[in-house]
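tokens incoming
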């Protein structure tokens, strides 16, 4: 091989190079500083947005908690009013006082519970020790109840209790006498310490704050407590930002402002309760929720400084390295001989293409590959051996890599892979070109193409992956079955088919089988391109290379979804009531066994409620079975509306329903649910022809306190239900084990 042309390392003045390099480094540093500042700004905005979202969520949670507590107290007041208006002549003062004391005992934050007669005198109260006589006839809320016929709930501003000197608010409801006139009020006083205890459980950071204000924005409760007139209970001092926010969104909103009470800048959110005259206001202090941002600011500043110092240091090193550039040029000349030796001994054919696309140099492998000898290729045009490349490419100004072409050898065409790299030499631009014989690769590709034609024509869905699970091929049947096109799958992981319905144990067993036996088959839930989850039958086989290592895995799919859906339909027909959609007796018994097992593990109770509709037969006889079916459907909906999502309601047959309440710790909770069921079942049914009114009789038994066997639980609940039937219907009875001093059934 003749001497190769000497490489020329073009250069320019050191001063010009230094100026360009310094300018580039300065621009880079300015870009980094700008990006860092933008990132910090975005992080600051995101922290504020997260704080606003957090306060909104906490305010919503507090609204629900406070409303739930007030709903519970109001329900107790309504119950007392209903008892007095319905059974006034049968309730003695002692019994009424005992009932009030019982309610107050279960409400530790209840300061006082009393019934005030029409003259303003305390008729009965929750205090076991009598207090000084007090007349409430002049009390504002007493007069409002007396002068209004509406049975509304009135809530007072905060005031100090005359007995305990604690801050309280009062809830009161009007009582009607037997003639419908004003008969007094029932009054409950709540200690404001309840709200402070509720607010203190929140994690708002060292400087967070939460407050409760009435509809006139008077302060009812605040955590933490502060001194000063602005922080006193009843104070209406608010920030201008809150006032403006309330004008724009009176129901709920967010704002950022320093609190007038302590001058702490906070991100605040407020919510007005839907059913009570209160605002819940929650604030997170900036110095708390921006702590991480301040740390990021410091860290980013240090990193930017380090980057600037580093780039300046690298600039100095590069300038120093450039100074040594000229010294390296001498080394290149010494390596020319070594380069010539490497080219001669290279396993691939190497050519040097000079001006006008003429072959100027080549190595020994070029002659062996193309079948030429001696100087036959010297100064020949490149088109002599690569006609396609010479016609299609300006090889003097572009590089190519692994370009498959046909080389024209001495009497026969040869498939070659061509790579070229432009070079600059003292004689001008040239190209170094490498030719590699790919005859064997072409033969393998042809075999693979034939195999591809075979699996493309197969009717079964086929997918081919590499050992890591990356999809490398699918056939048209796969696209027809799954909806995934080659553009969506090739190069992707086979996990795109996973439905999320199988746990890790399922896939662990599959891979163990593939690793040990090279194959796996079974039923699997897959996801279609539409998002639908279907059942497929999958068979996976492994293809190994010459070293017995997994090379490909081939999967064949067939759908079994239709069979699964038929099985599911049969199961649903066997387990659910067709008319109401509720579980039938079979599924109900299975759920009961599950709840009993859970109760044994958690030491809780299970309540069984049997419900029989009163006068339902009259609806069927008078209006027909279609009307009766409509009543049954509405009854099922009402029952579901009175119980939790985790509870089970079922139709056992005819007009008989049942409910399972699991995880019960307090039986009184079951009684309140039963009463709500009685109330819901007694509401009128508005049918197409007319409005009918029926009711429900409910019997209750508990596991394991009443019985441990399901059939005995049913028997006891059935006895309780028929006790209600014989006692006048439309009520609830709980089974009580026989006792010499008490009846076996207790009406609630």
């Amino acid at each position: 091989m003749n001497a190769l042309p000497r490489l020329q390392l073009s250069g320019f003045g050191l001063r010009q190079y230094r100026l360009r390099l310094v300018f580039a480094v300065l621009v880079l540093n300015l870009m980094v500083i700008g990006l860092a500042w933008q990132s910090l700004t975005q992080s600051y905005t995101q922290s504020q947005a997260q704080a606003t979202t957090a306060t909104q969520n906490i305010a919503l949670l507090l609204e629900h908690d406070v409303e739930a507590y007030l709903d519970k107290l109001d329900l107790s007041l309504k119950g007392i009013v209903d008892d007095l208006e319905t059974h006034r002549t049968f309730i003695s003062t002692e019994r009424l006082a005992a009932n009030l004391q019982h309610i107050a005992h279960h409400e530790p934050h209840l300061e006082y519970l009393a019934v005030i007669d029409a003259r303003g005198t305390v008729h009965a109260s929750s205090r076991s020790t009598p207090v000084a006589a007090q007349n409430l006839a002049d009390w504002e809320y007493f007069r409002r109840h007396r002068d209004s016929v509406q049975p509304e709930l009135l809530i007072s501003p905060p005031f100090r209790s005359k007995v305990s000197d604690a801050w309280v608010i009062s809830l009161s409801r009007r009582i009607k006498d037997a003639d419908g006139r004003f008969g007094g009020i029932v009054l409950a006083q709540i200690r404001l310490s309840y709200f402070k205890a509720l607010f203190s459980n929140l994690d708002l950071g060292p400087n967070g704050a939460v407050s409760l204000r009435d509809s006139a924005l008077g302060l009812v409760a605040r955590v933490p407590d502060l001194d000063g007139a602005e922080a006193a209970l009843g104070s209406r001092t608010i920030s201008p930002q809150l006032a403006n926010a309330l004008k724009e969104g009176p129901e709920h909103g967010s704002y950022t402002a320093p609190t007038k009470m302590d001058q702490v800048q906070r991100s605040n959110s407020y919510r007005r309760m839907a059913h009570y005259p209160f605002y819940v206001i929650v604030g997170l202090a900036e110095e708390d929720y921006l702590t991480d941002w301040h740390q990021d600011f410091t860290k980013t500043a240090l990193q930017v400084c380090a980057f600037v110092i580093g780039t300046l240091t690298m600039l100095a090193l590069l300038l120093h390295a450039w100074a040594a550039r000229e010294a390296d040029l001498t080394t290149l000349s010494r390596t020319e001989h070594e380069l010539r030796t490497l080219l001669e001994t290279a396993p691939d054919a190497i050519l040097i293409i000079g001006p006008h696309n003429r072959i100027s140099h080549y190595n020994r492998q070029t002659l062996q590959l193309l079948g030429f000898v001696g100087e036959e290729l010297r100064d020949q045009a490149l088109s002599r051996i690569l006609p396609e490349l010479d016609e299609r490419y300006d090889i003097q100004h572009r590089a190519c890599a692994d370009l498959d072409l046909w080389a024209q050898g001495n009497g026969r065409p040869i498939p070659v892979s061509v790579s070229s790299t432009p070079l600059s030499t003292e004689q001008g631009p040239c190209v170094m070109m490498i030719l590699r014989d790919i005859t064997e690769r072409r033969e393998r590709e042809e075999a693979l193409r034939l195999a591809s034609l075979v699996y493309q024509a197969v009717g079964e869905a086929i997918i081919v992956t590499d050992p890591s699970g990356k999809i490398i091929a699918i056939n048209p049947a796969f696209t027809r079955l799954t909806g995934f096109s080659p553009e969506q799958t090739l190069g992707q992981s086979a996990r795109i088919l996973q439905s999320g319905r199988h746990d890790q144990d399922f896939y662990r067993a599959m891979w163990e089988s593939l690793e040990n036996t090279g194959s796996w088959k079974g039923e699997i839930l897959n996801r279609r391109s539409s998002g639908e989850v279907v059942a497929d039958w999958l068979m996976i086989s492994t293809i190994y290379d010459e070293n017995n290592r997994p090379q490909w895995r081939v999967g064949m799919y067939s759908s079994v979804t239709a069979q699964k859906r038929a099985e599911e339909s049969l199961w649903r027909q066997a387990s659910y009531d067709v008319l109401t959609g509720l579980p039938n007796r079979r599924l109900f018994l299975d759920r009961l066994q599950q709840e009993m097992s859970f109760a044994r593990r958690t030491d809780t109770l299970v309540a069984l409620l049997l419900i029989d509709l009163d006068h339902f037969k009259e609806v069927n006889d008078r209006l027909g079975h279609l009307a009766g079916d409509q009543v049954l459907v509405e009854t099922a909906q009402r029952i579901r509306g009175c119980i939790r999502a985790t509870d089970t309601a079922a139709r056992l047959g005819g007009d008989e329903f049942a409910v399972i309440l699991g995880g019960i710790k307090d039986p009184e909770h079951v009684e309140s649910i039963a009463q709500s069921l009685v109330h819901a079942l007694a509401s009128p049914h508005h049918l197409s022809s007319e409005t009918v009114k029926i009711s429900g009789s409910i019997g209750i038994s508990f596991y394991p306190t009443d019985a441990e066997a399901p059939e005995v639980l049913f028997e006891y609940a059935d006895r309780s239900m028929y006790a209600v039937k014989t006692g006048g219907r439309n009520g609830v009875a709980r089974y009580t084990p026989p006792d010499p001093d008490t009846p076996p059934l207790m009406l609630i």
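note: Residues 1-11 have pLDDT under 50 and may be disordered.
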